[in-house]
Design a protein that fits this description.
The complex is a heterodimer of chains A (308) and B (539). With 308 residues, chain A is α+β, with helices and mostly antiparallel strands. Chain A contains twelve helices and seven strands. In chain A, helix 1 packs across helix 7 and helix 8 packs parallel to helix 10. In chain A, strands 2, 3, 4, 5 and 6 form a five-stranded antiparallel sheet that branches. Chain B has 539 residues and is an alpha+beta fold. Classes of the chains: A alpha+beta (308), B alpha+beta (539). Strand 6 of chain A pairs antiparallel with strand 18 of chain B, so a sheet runs across the interface.
């Protein structure tokens, strides 16, 4: 069995790097593309007139003063064009629709509109709700582990693993957003919520084993005990992840690509969850126990040793 | 053999037998709830197992509106106005025949409307937003003949021909056999005693630019009558009933119409107009029915005494007649509504047979997970796969009984809870295997497996519940509420049942069937490779 605890600083360093890179990817504009529900806007599905090409639609949009929208015109499988603009007044919306009437007809059933203020409120409420939920989870886990010394660390470990999973998912989605234009829609948020559920479950299983082994005095010193606990739960962590991935795969094959971004997010989250339950949550406890945060900086510990 | 085993063991496992009975009862009720049958009790005769499907699964339109209160509206009045608005929208939607619509007030000034099964957005928006101001008009006279727009223009009029009737004049042709043509122009008086011409949308218009044929349009003035000494116009507010109907004549050809009934004031005004106009020559004997200044129908008075009942005919499509009836009946909305949320429906992207495939996906997902569990955990895997099937049936029955509106996000919540149910089993079996390797007896291993796995299951499930409660609370405050709330609700229910499934079903089944039986001696059936003693290798 591999010794996980001895490399805890390395694993944590990887986690920190991944979190930072993911957060930067998500934060840099053009990465994580917010969909209509989270920034507001107008979506028009244009059924082109006979002989109208994508270029025609684009030049029409540019003429009307929507050069940004023109660049982002998307063609659907059934020959329609999806046009997205920012939120604007009803008059301007009508102007745009009237202008587009020269190149095609708008299919109202595949179009949509979200007011910018509503979208902002949705995004803000989502952030508030997630924060409140995370704080309450932290409080509950700290209470549930109250018989273990420093139970607050266990709650923190769960939250850090959770943040890791979410940031990895958002980071990879930022890359996908750049590459293939995937957007953050309510389904993606649902996937993030599902990842929170899984990730909490994953971390608690590992920490519960640490709690139990600590109480029973198994596994020697703290590092050894954490290491032993991770080894013991390894099979379970992998099995649960494998069964979940299998289920996601089944849904992907049958339901198909229409909810692929949701399934992809779920897949990334589950894989990240398997990693973080093994390499993040427990390792954080070990680092915290020793207080050797300096080890997180590569080479720093060697320098220190050399000095001594 | 099975029966003799059970009878022999019953005294030893009295508590478990009761638990088994409870499980069977819950399962039996759940199966009964979910079994399709001809009976309409619990909607068992409906499609999709009688589950309530959300808009994204069954198709439909979701719209969000913000009320545009005039600035001087006191805050105390707003709640009442919102309630009236929501009630009227509900009435219109009901009258149109949408099944199980949702009309929900959110915050102080927003209304969410969900119309399952409706597919035409333009029609849906018309149904809700249109203030539908209905008026009955009659043709204004210029001397003894009908006044037209041409008469107004040629005479350079600065006032109406019939100065005794105030209100606007709408210039429109009579509605012929074909479709109604839109109004040509509207004219109203201004403060400085001139006339101002507008087009059908209320924008200023220069009538001189119109074609001669347009100028021939009649001038329609409000149809008025005197009630209790007061001159009143006949409007939609005087209606008590409006209903789409089909007339069949003697030849057997049918015509779609809208039956209307007036309140007593309306009945009296309508008869007064009829008495006045019916004896006149065409076109002055016509009654103009206008909706938001557009002619809907211009029937000729066939009698001078209606007694408060009339019928509007006008080459209606069935849907158009229903729409008109709904708009007439619900009357005007007390506040203006602005559309603020109209998401692209998921079903538009997912396609019609999505629901079927979603159900299939769940089945195949269950199958794959079950096979994996059996291959890896052998005999306990069989038990857990069976428990998962029972779990699914019970959860679906609860979804149906509450009832939970199943959305795509709700299915996601269900899948996550399914994952947690599997995980609970995995946790228990891993613990059990460890105990077996350490040389415990089967019963001790099962008991220890459960009691040692329990804290982890409990803590992770309670933590998930906390998240669900917060999400549910937050979900009610956003427009995309069905997504978040659906997810939180299905997940919370699923997690609750998964604890029952792991602790009650799996545990009871393992104890009843394997403890103290010959199966207990075959450790390979439990995925344990060898006899006791080797278990120490992990330590």
């Amino acid at each position: 069995m591999p010794n996980f605890a001895s490399k805890s600083h390395l694993f944590l360093l990887i986690a920190v790097v991944v979190i930072v890179v993911g957060a930067v990817l998500a934060a840099v504009p053009g990465g994580l593309r917010l969909g209509m529900d989270f920034q507001g806007g107008l979506l028009l599905a244009l059924v082109p007139n006979e002989g109208i090409t994508r270029a025609d639609v684009q030049s029409k949009l540019s003429d009307l003063g929507y050069s940004q929208a023109a660049d982002a015109v998307q063609e659907t499988g059934d020959g329609k064009f999806l046009i997205r603009t920012k939120d604007m007044s009803e008059e301007k919306q009508q102007e745009l629709k009237d202008g587009l009437a020269e190149v095609g007809t708008i299919d109202p059933n595949e179009s949509g509109y979200v007011n910018a203020a509503v979208a902002t409120q949705t995004a803000r409420n989502a952030a508030i709700a997630t924060s409140v939920a995370v704080v309450l989870m932290l409080v509950y886990i700290t209470w549930a582990f109250r018989k273990v010394p420093h139970s607050f660390r266990y709650g923190t470990a769960v939250v850090v693993a959770l943040v890791f999973n979410l940031v990895v998912t958002m980071g990879i989605f930022s890359i996908l957003g750049r590459l293939v234009g995937w957007e953050v829609d309510p389904m993606f948020i649902t996937a993030l919520l599902a990842i929170i559920g899984y990730s909490v479950n994953d971390s608690i299983v590992v920490l519960d084993r640490i709690r139990e082994n600590k109480a029973r005095g198994i596994g020697g010193d703290y590092d050894g005990m954490v290491n032993f606990s991770i080894q013991e739960t390894l099979v379970r962590s992998l099995n649960t992840s494998i069964t979940t991935v299998l289920a996601i795969l089944a849904v992907y094959l049958i339901v198909g690509g229409s909810i692929r971004s949701f399934l992809m997010a779920l897949f990334i989250g589950v894989v990240a969850g398997a990693y973080s339950s093994i390499f993040v949550a427990g390792q954080l406890l070990v680092m915290w126990e020793h207080g050797e945060w300096i080890k997180l900086i590569p080479g720093a510990s060697r320098l220190q040793r050399n000095k001594a | 053999m099975m029966r003799s085993r059970l009878t022999r063991r019953r005294p030893r496992f009295g508590g478990n037998s009761w638990l088994l009975l409870l499980i069977l009862a819950v399962l039996g009720v759940s199966i009964w709830v979910m079994t399709p049958s001809g009976s309409n009790v619990l909607h068992r005769d409906r499609e999709n197992l009688g589950l309530t499907l959300g808009l994204d699964l069954q198709g439909g339109i979701s719209l969000g509106y913000e009320a545009q209160f005039p600035e001087d509206t006191p805050d105390t009045d707003k709640a009442g106005l919102m309630k009236t608005t929501a009630d009227r929208i509900r009435k219109r939607v009901d009258a149109y025949g949408v099944t199980e619509p949702v009309v929900q007030i959110q915050g102080g000034d927003r209304i969410i409307v969900q119309l399952p099964g409706m597919t035409d957005r333009a029609q849906a928006q018309g149904l809700i937003q249109q203030t539908a101001f209905l008026e009955f008009r009659e043709i204004e006279t210029n001397g003894s003949s009908a006044a037209t727009l041409k008469d107004y223009l040629d005479g350079n009029r600065t006032s109406f021909f019939n100065s005794s009737v105030s209100g606007t004049r709408v210039f429109a042709h009579a509605v012929g056999a074909g479709e109604a043509t839109p109004s040509v122009a509207i004219v109203r008086t201004t403060d400085n005693n001139t006339l101002e011409y507008l087009d059908g949308n209320g924008n200023p218009l220069d009538p001189a630019t119109l074609e001669d044929s347009d100028k021939a349009a009649y001038s329609w003035m409000p149809g008025v009558g005197t009630v209790d000494g007061e001159v009143m116009a006949l409007t939609g507010g005087n209606l008590t009933k409006a209903e789409a109907t089909v007339n069949t004549d003697q030849v057997g050809s049918s015509e779609i119409a809208v039956d209307i009934e007036f309140n007593s004031a309306g009945a009296s005004i309508f008869d007064e107009i009829a008495v006045r106009d019916q004896p006149k020559t065409s076109p002055l004997n016509m009654c103009g029915i206008f909706l938001d200044n557009q002619p809907v129908s211009t029937p000729t008075f066939q009698t001078s005494s209606f007694g408060g009942k009339a019928q509007i005919t006008g080459n209606f499509e069935w849907n158009a007649a229903k729409l008109l009836a709904a708009q007439l009946k619900a009357g005007q909305l007390p506040v203006e509504l602005k559309l603020i949320y109209e998401p692209r429906t998921v079903s538009a992207t997912l396609g019609a047979d999505f629901t079927r495939r979603a159900f299939q996906a769940i089945l195949v997902g269950l199958l794959v997970v079950g096979i994996f569990m059996i291959l890896y955990y052998r005999l306990p895997g069989v038990v857990s796969a069976t428990a998962l099937v029972m779990y699914t049936v019970i959860v679906l029955a609860i979804y149906k009984l509450i009832p939970v509106t199943l959305t795509l996000a709700g299915i996601a919540g269900f899948i996550v809870s399914l994952g947690m149910a599997v995980d609970a089993n995995v946790l228990i079996f891993e613990r059990m295997k460890e105990e077996l390797r350490a040389g415990r007896t089967m019963k001790a291993a099962i008991d220890a497996g459960f009691s040692r796995a329990w804290p982890a299951i409990r803590d992770s499930n309670i933590t998930t519940w906390i998240a669900c409660i917060i999400l549910y609370w937050f979900g009610s405050s956003v427009m995309a509420s069905s997504v978040v709330m659906g997810f939180a609700l299905t997940l919370a229910i699923g997690v609750g049942v998964s604890m029952f499934s792991a602790i009650a079903i799996t545990r009871t089944a393992l104890l009843l069937f394997f403890s103290g039986t010959s199966a207990a001696k075959r450790l390979a059936w439990f995925g344990v490779e060898s006899r006791p003693g080797v278990g120490a290798k992990d330590a």
